[in-house]
């Protein structure tokens, strides 16, 4: 693979550079500024014991549904709010702190890596489909199917020996505050150091994410140029025909299996009589996460003993359930809703008034400045740490 990439880069330098710049633009304009606040917040909440507080309160919910401790609810909520790979990062941190067993961490990773609402409503529904109302259908199918995946994965590893036999049975605000206080006392770092470490750890993770986004952007382009992608797409055509889906979606769908943004954009640009096949395929690749996101998750999990295979299996399950829910809910949540609207609103006005469009535009305009500011801040923190050690 390394030799193939090297030879392809030499053969197609201009196209590789263009793909690399496209991946970097996506990272520093949207991905970095949209994820960094969530990553820093997660690090701070972990350090201050708030996660333990939430864990005690949500134990009666998380244990029966997903067979994981209450602290897993933090990863679930943050994963839905900020998108991948936040769920994997939080699961890895909880595992490092011994708040989860390996099996519990694998269950948590399986259903906490979602697309963010910003991506679903802003990029997919408004940016690609140019239809803000479609975001409701996609979001409900995406998050509901991920919850079903979590319920299904509760049986993962049930035959292995349990390492933690005692579980909290009583739940109270007092117990939650005590758990938070104990966690805070264990961390002897002053607030300034905690904040600095939170910024550094978050930026390190996001730099890794940016590297994978750029790598897969270039890889997808090279595979297309050398003819590998069209060859695989011919096989996918047969699979799509089995499910009565247009074979024209083969190449865009394959691209989506590698990188969600590129694939979803290509799918929405194909002209069809019905919108349903497009939404079905987009729902699947959102649940599958794409090999780019999966590589990011694998890199995060590699630092722990959490296995990647359960997460990979869950991605197929998530994509399948999301596609089925899309078929079932397409009429009641989209067609019937459109038919019931009595006032015609111009499309341009609908998009301009959509909050997700405004957020995406804001990130695109100011995201690069935000990214470079925090990268500079990270350099200053690293320099000060180095000086203190000397």
From TrEMBL:
The keyword Membrane applies. The chain crosses the membrane at residues 35-58, 249-267, 279-301, 308-330, 362-383. InterPro entries: Gate_dom (IPR011642), Spore_IM_YlbJ (IPR014226). Residues 30-127, 206-302 form the Nucleoside transporter/FeoB GTPase Gate domain. The keyword Transmembrane helix applies. Keywords: Membrane, Transmembrane, Transmembrane helix. This is Sporulation integral membrane protein YlbJ. The gene is ylbJ.
